[in-house]
Design goal:
- The complex is a heterodimer of chains A (467) and B (188).
- Chain A has 467 residues and is an alpha/beta fold.
- Chain A has 3 domains: 33-244, NADH-ubiquinone oxidoreductase 51kDa subunit (Rossmann fold, 3-Layer(aba) Sandwich), CATH 3.40.50.11540; 252-352, Ubiquitin-like (UB roll), CATH 3.10.20.600; 357-466, NADH-ubiquinone oxidoreductase 51kDa subunit, iron-sulphur binding domain (de novo design (two linked rop proteins), Up-down Bundle).
- Helix content of chain A is 40%, strand content 15%.
- Chain A contains 17 helices and 13 strands.
- A 5-stranded mixed sheet of chain A has the order 8-7-13-9-10, with no helix packed on it. In chain A, strands 3-2-1-4 form a 4-stranded parallel sheet, with helices on both faces. In chain A, strands 5-6 form a two-stranded antiparallel sheet.
- In chain A, helix 5 packs across helix 6, helix 14 (377-395) packs antiparallel against helix 15 and helix 14 (377-395) runs parallel beside helix 16 (421-441).
- The two termini of chain A are 45 Å apart.
- Chain B has 188 residues and is α+β, with helices and mostly antiparallel strands.
- Chain B has 2 domains: 21-88, Arc Repressor Mutant, subunit A (Orthogonal Bundle); 100-185, Glutaredoxin (3-Layer(aba) Sandwich).
- Chain B has 8 helices and 5 strands.
- The longest helix of chain B has 12 residues, at 49-60.
- Classes of the chains: A alpha/beta (467), B alpha+beta (188).
- Chains A and B meet through strand 3, strand 7, strand 13 and helix 13 of A and helix 3, helix 5 and helix 6 of B.
- Bound molecules: flavin mononucleotide (FMN), iron/sulfur cluster (SF4) and FE2/S2 (inorganic) cluster.
Chain lengths: 467, 188
């Protein structure tokens, strides 16, 4: 049975710049240590072990590397939050939960280049002084868990992990910890609770910033798989040279995962900010399907606000403000944020003019209603309430007032919850209503207010009769 | 079955039950469990609850009340602390699935690519009554012969090759709805 897909004949697009995905789909490549070493693997770890730990962090700070897991927070700055007088053990966790809808990059790293992540982790652990680290892999990646465990065993046997790594006196153990199918385990404090063996209820920040009070209440660094891989390249090039890739404040490369209504969906690694939305969608991804036009794009995983393709945006670059069409927007963290959405996890979901926005929103709402951990009332009740309203919208039984309720529910979740899931479930609704109000309204009818009952009441009545 | 758990657990018997041995704390799983516990710092053995539950589910198909008791005793914690974990995670089951458990991605990119149609044709091919499926809580539905079970899953992180599904541990990408019978034929 085919376990891991290699697309060996799939050449990277000429507009790509492959750093992290250099070995993904590479001809003759496999995830073994032997292959990795034949390609200069673990050279950066050896180099880092000869530096002072603080100097490694300094390089990462200089590189301007920003987290690739969703929030885009500067990695070196995060590492610096470990209390200076700390005497407790420090832990590091590689976040391989990859469950943001639309995102599919980390799995390819785990499957095809696990040693790259392990090397990045080892360097990062050395920098922050961690001697125990975990790779938190979502349960739906059984093959990835096996491959990474094999890679760890191989690395350990060859002195790249374990005691006294490469004679440096630095000890490090890495283990795989598998989740069990809950999206909220991707949120770093939920992940930590899960790793402690509890329900993954996120912790409130402040005070529970992982870098100060994380796993077992000890300082803990949680970084995305891709972020940790970048650390290796920062050491290879030096922070300053790395920072020259991409654009100022948005350095390096990043992997964009394009799915939905384009001719060539897939993963593309680009220099951050050096490609526009139009180049990505039309040149790299082959444009819309035959006879179709692009309608809307979610640029950074399903939690990001939806954008209309025919809009234009006022973007500040330095001191000057320029008006740009959607297709002219450069793909970086700051521009997408200025355009009212977020670059998030790099999951670009494209919809063409064949898609009904009520259906799209309902699908998204079902996801969040299913995945809310249930700790905070606004999120637990609100996500389900929003789903029920869009259920009605799709069924054609919604009233115009339902849309107002939907909007007000979303705004009552946003900013009133323990973790950022609250925003993640509210933003799609808020932005969808802002962008496509007329389309949604057209699917409602005043007359529906006179319907004898809605389907939920019907189902409830049936249930009570049967019981 | 331990009294305190009995009333909380749905009946674990399904047509799939015949494919799984009843839970037993064999020497082999005890050894595997001890290996896992060692991966966490001293006195933090509670962290091993998910790994131990995965061992149980992999071996016996689902997590029975006896298994919960066993995990609790291995970790020296109260059974309720194990059960609260079992009842939270969608990936942990309390009744037997089919011999082959199929998870179809339901989320946006896959839905656009035809995953609902795929689910429909899988159910048809496996003789599963899709009306038994709760669209919002993803319960497992088992075919009458016990060979198959299906479930909707949320984004499986392969949205670029939609629609996708997992059959036990095997990943299948770009599964056209009409190829559902072929997919089932690869197993059995
Ligand atoms: C609801 C929610 C889900 C998340 N899921 C993931 C995920 O699947 N993978 C991930 O790397 N980060 C995820 N994050 C972000 C993490 O909380 C955390 O910010 C990230 O792992 C930090 O790594 P980075 O700095 O390298 O980006 C999620 C955040 C939230 C609020
Ligand atoms: S916002 Fe939602 S997911 Fe986050 S802690 Fe609250 S209930 Fe849980
Ligand atoms: S939406 Fe199906 S794999 Fe992501």
């Amino acid at each position: 049975m085919a376990k891991v897909t290699y697309l060996e004949d799939k050449e990277p697009h000429p507009r790509e710049r492959r750093l992290i995905f250099k070995n993904v789909d590479r001809k003759g490549w496999n995830p073994s240590l032997k292959k990795y070493l034949s390609d200069g693997g673990y050279k950066e770890l050896k180099a880092a072990l000869k530096m002072e730990p603080g100097a490694v962090t300094e390089e990462v700070k200089k590189s301007g590397l920003r987290g690739r897991g969703g929030a885009g927070f500067p990695t070196g700055v995060k590492w610096g939050f470990i209390p200076p007088k700390n005497e407790k053990p420090v832990y590091l966790i590689s976040n391989a939960d990859e469950s943001e809808p639309g995102t599919f990059k980390d799995r390819y790293i785990l499957h095809q280049d696990p040693h790259q992540m392990l090397e990045g982790m080892a360097i990062s652990c050395y920098a922050v002084g961690a001697h125990l680290a975990y790779v938190y892999i979502r349960e739906e990646f059984p093959e990835a868990a096996r491959i990474v465990e094999e890679a760890i065993a191989e690395a350990r046997k060859n002195g790249f992990l374990g005691k006294n790594i490469q004679g440096s006196g630095f000890d490090l153990e890495i283990y795989v910890h598998r989740g069990a199918g809950a999206y909220i385990c991707g949120e770093e404090t939920g992940l930590i609770e899960s790793l402690e063996g509890k329900r993954p209820y996120p912790r409130i920040k402040p005070p529970y910033f992982p870098a100060a009070m994380g796993l077992y209440m000890c300082p803990t660094i949680v970084n995305n798989v891709e972020t940790l891989c970048h650390v290796k390249h920062v050491i290879a090039m030096g922070g300053e040279k790395y920072a020259a890739i991409g654009t100022p404040r948005n350095t390096g490369t990043r992997i964009l995962c394009v799915s939905g209504d384009v001719r060539k969906p897939g993963y593309y690694e680009i220099e951050v900010g050096k490609m526009t939305m139009g180049e990505l969608l039309n040149d790299v991804c082959g444009g819309p399907r035959k006879g179709r036009k692009f309608k809307a794009v979610i640029p950074g995983g399903s939690s990001a606000k939806i954008m209309r393709c025919h809009d234009s945006y006022k973007i500040k670059q330095g001191d000057k403000e320029t008006e740009m069409t959607f297709y002219d927007l450069p793909l970086d963290f700051d521009t997408i944020a200025q355009a009212g959405s977020m670059a998030g996890s790099g999951g670009v979901i494209v919809m063409d003019d064949s898609r009904k926005m009520s259906w799209v929103l309902n699908n998204i709402n079902q996801f969040y209603a299913h995945e809310s951990c249930g700790q905070c009332t606004p999120c637990r009740e609100g996500s389900t309430w929003m789903r029920k309203i869009t259920d009605r919208l799709v069924a054609g039984t919604a009233t115009p007032a339902d849309l107002e309720t939907l909007e007000s529910v979303a705004y009552q979740i946003d900013g009133r919850t323990i973790c950022a899931f609250g925003e993640a479930c509210a933003w799609p609704v808020e932005s969808m209503i802002a962008m496509f109000r007329d389309e949604l309204l057209a699917e409602t009818s005043e007359k529906n207010a006179d319907l004898p009952s809605n389907p939920e009441e019907e189902a409830q009545r049936r249930y009570l009769q049967e019981a | 079955m331990p009294d305190i758990l009995q009333h909380q657990v749905a009946s674990p018997t399904t047509p799939g039950s015949k494919h799984f041995a009843p839970f037993e704390a064999t020497a082999a799983i005890e050894k595997a469990a001890r290996e896992r516990i060692k991966q966490y710092p001293k006195d933090r053995q509670r962290s091993a609850v998910l790994p131990l539950l995965h061992i149980v589910q992999h071996e016996f198909g689902f997590i029975s009340p006896e298994a919960i008791e066993w995990v609790a005793s291995m970790l020296e914690i109260e059974p309720i602390k194990v059960e609260e974990v079992v009842t939270f995670y969608p990936g942990l089951r309390q009744s037997a699935p089919g011999k082959f458990h199929i998870r179809v991605c339901r989320t946006l990119s896959c839905a656009m690519g035809g995953s609902y149609e795929l689910m429909e044709s899988l159910c048809k091919a496996a003789d599963i009554d899709q009306s038994k499926m709760d669209p919002h809580h993803h319960p497992v539905v088992v075919s009458p012969c016990g060979t198959w079970s299906v479930e909707f899953a949320e984004c499986l992180a392969s949205c670029g090759t939609a629609p996708v599904c997992l059959v036990n541990d095997d990943f299948h990408e770009g599964v056209a709805p009409e190829s559902a019978p072929d997919l089932l034929n690869q197993y059995k």
